[in-house]
Amino acid sequence: MRRLRALWPLAIIVAAPSTARAAGQPAAGPAPSTAEATPLPAPAPPPPAASETPVDADAARDSALWAERDRQLSETDAISGGVGLLHTQHAVSGAPGQFRMGFTSEFFSAGFLCSTTFPCPNPNANGAPITSDTLSHFGGTLTLSATVTKWLEVYAATGAYGSADSSNRPSLLQVFGDSQIGLKAFYPLSPVFHVGGVTELDLVNGSGAVGLTGAGTGAKFRAIGTADLRGLGESIPLRMSLNLGYAVDDTAQVVAAYEAATGGPVTRIERFGLEFNRVDHFDVAFGAETFLLRSLIRPFLEYTLLVPVNRQGYACPVVNASGDHCLENDAVVPSKLTVGSRFFPWKHGFSVVAAFDVGVTGTSDFIEEVAPTPPWMLYLGVGWAVDTWDRPPVEIRRTVEHVVPPKVLGQLRGFVHPKDKSDGIPGAIVAFEDHPDITSRVSGADGRFAVPVEPGTYKLAVHVKGYQDGKCGGEMGPTPADVPVDCPLEPALVNVTANEITIDKQIQFQVDSANILSESDGLMREIADTLIKNPRIKKVEVQGHTDSSGSNEYNQALSEQRAMAVRDGLVSRGVAPERLVAHGYGEDRPLIPNVTRALKALNRRVQFIILEQTPAPEK
Asked: What is the pLDDT of residues 357-385, one digit of tens each?
């Protein structure tokens, strides 16, 4: 509702919900030990005891998922409602299931609407035109947005504003309840470039009455492009967005009846205080932000401009109450520069914004079709983001050991060796897959181990550096005895050298595609395990290479897609995403000339080059 009153009280209450609790981490497993003995009675168990062990088989995957959701929880709304800066929206949003709310106040106090060039009409009928004025403006905007899917966001905003100018009658002009409802779609073209589009409905309250003015309802259509340089291989803490939009602006309908009754347009002061335009406009906004102190401080800079378009065919009276120019003979393009920053002081999801508009054009040259632009405006606001997804709970397994009579045990006597060879492999860790109560063993210098067990079937998992993980097992009959267990191991497919992680066979893709074939699942798991078990390797470049078949452009694109597919596959298997950089080289780096089909097959490859690592500990 728009009101003209002498007093203007304003009260604001902001409430914030509590945050979700953090997920726990799994405890370390028991240390392996060795055992060599002949059949003997089992030792008496200890007195009954209770223990607690966190169980979280998917901890690595959940950790990566929630780290990304926590990062997206720091996205905040622009003053129009969608995720962005202050006046500029980004072609990104939060994670699905997250929503954001915010309140932003604005303040301005100065005289700029009455000057010797553009004097204001004197409220006193016989008084001289006014060449200076004193204006105070204060208002607030409440925003709410929600990310519905990974490519769709909905938002709404509503505001209340008041302007008091002693050079006008009435001196106080108020706007209550003008609202926007918007829908934003967005899509990542790459880790750096994102595109999107916005459709927004503008609902305008009437002047001197309660309720919406249907004729004043407008719409905005906006195309958005965002470049987030944090997605580069060498991350740069900078994000930029460009908004190009068109506004169907019929807000002048709120005073149409008043102007028809009085026989002329309202004054320049009233046009500013009631915040309306008489014509449509193209809107252009460019914004850039950087990320400091682990993204807790985010300074930004914006430039916006409004290009009037007289779709309505408004016939501007050359002689009007305010003596303003007309668009036909004075093509004013209002614009402003915004400097500000967002801060994330303590609680995750809570933010504070401070920004300052500087009017560049339209602050001293006025046209009847467009509301005046103030020379400056100060903004202060707070925001809060909430994630509606529940973090996975920490599961606690309680085990109570009971005293049982000693049992006569047999021996599983195992031998770990390379496949098709008789030499033993020392230091292999042997774990019981189906009997977690039995302590893991380590093979001796001759590759052998022995474990006292009860009658039953036993499945063993064998792990040792330089070999693929293996499986073996044995069955102990009802009569205790020595049962031999053969554990042959295949040489490892993945090895770590000084500057590269090498693989003994290549990752297989579908023809002319970046889809990894299922036959490479085991190799992908082994590569991921190697990275996880070598935390001193800080960053690896995943390189995609092709042979010379096809065009250079096609090969370059295919190599980039395959490198990114391998990177994503390793991240999904628990490797931290910041440790991996994907890069395609097309056909530019062949190992050998592409002269035969067999040689071309060797050039189609994925390599893992170590870019950063800490020195290996001295032995």
From this structure: 999 999 999 999 999 999 999 999 999 99
Is residue 507 within 8 Å of residue 606, measured between CB atoms? yes
DSSP string, 76-114: -B-TTSSBBSSS-B-S----TTEEEEEEEEEEEEE--S-
**Would you state the pLDDT for residue 28?**
38
Average pLDDT, the chain: 86
Q: Residue 258: enclosing H or E segment and its boundaries? A: helix 256-262
| Residues written for the chain | 619
Q: Is 488 helix (H, G, I), strand (E, B) or coil?
A: strand
Buried b / exposed e across 477-490, counting CB within 10 Å, b at 16+? eeebeebebebbbe
Q: DSSP secondary structure string, 294-358?
A: TTTEEEEEEEEEEEEE-TT-----SS-TT--B-TTT-----EEEEEEEEE--SSTTEEEEEEEEE
* Predicted pLDDT at 40: 41
Pairing of strands 456-463, 470-476: antiparallel
Domains of the chain, CATH where assigned: 73-387 (2.40.160.40), 407-489 (2.60.40.1120), 494-613 (3.30.1330.60)
pLDDT at 478 over 90: no
Helix (H, G, I), strand (E, B), or coil: what is residue 581? strand
Q: Which residues contact 505 (CB under 8 A, 6 or more apart)?
A: 493, 523
Give dist(CA 145, CA 166) in Å, integer. Answer: 38
Cβ neighbourhood burial of 539 (10 Å; 0-12, 13-18, 19+)? middle
What are the backbone dihedrals phi and psi of residue 461, each rounded to the nearest 5 degrees, phi first?
Answer: -110, 130
In the predicted model, is pLDDT for residue 134 greater than 80? Answer: yes
Confidence of residue 58 (pLDDT cuts 50, 70, 90): low
Q: Which two tokens stand for residue 251?
A: 């807000």
Helix (H) or strand (E) segment spanning residue 162: strand 152-165
Looking at the chain, the whole-number percentage of residues with pLDDT higher than 70 is 88
Statement: residue 598 has pLDDT above 60: yes
Give how far Cα 342 sits from Cα of 107, 251, 315, 350, Å.
18, 31, 43, 10
DSSP secondary structure string for all residues of 424-470 = --TT-EEEESS-TTSPPEE--TTSEEEEEE-SEEEEEEEE-TTB--E
Strand duo 482-489 + 410-418: pairing: parallel
**Cβ 72 vs Cβ 388: under 8 Å:** no
| Residues in Cβ contact with 502 at an 8 Å cutoff, skipping those fewer than 6 apart | 494, 495, 496, 608
Within 8 A by CB and 6+ apart from 323, the residues are: 118, 119, 121, 129
SS (H, E, C) 20-86: CCCCCCCCCCCCCCCCCCCCCECCCCCCCCEEEEEECCCHHHHHHHHHHHHHHCCCCECCCCCEECC
Closest CA to 307 of 289, 330, 334, 328: 334
* Secondary structure letter of residue 511 according to DSSP: T
**Which positions ≥6 away from 261 have C-beta within 8 Å?**
none
CA dihedral 533, 458, 427, 538 (to 10 degrees): 0
Give the integer Cα–Cα distance in Å for 48 and 51.
10
User: 3-state DSSP call for residue 234?
Assistant: coil
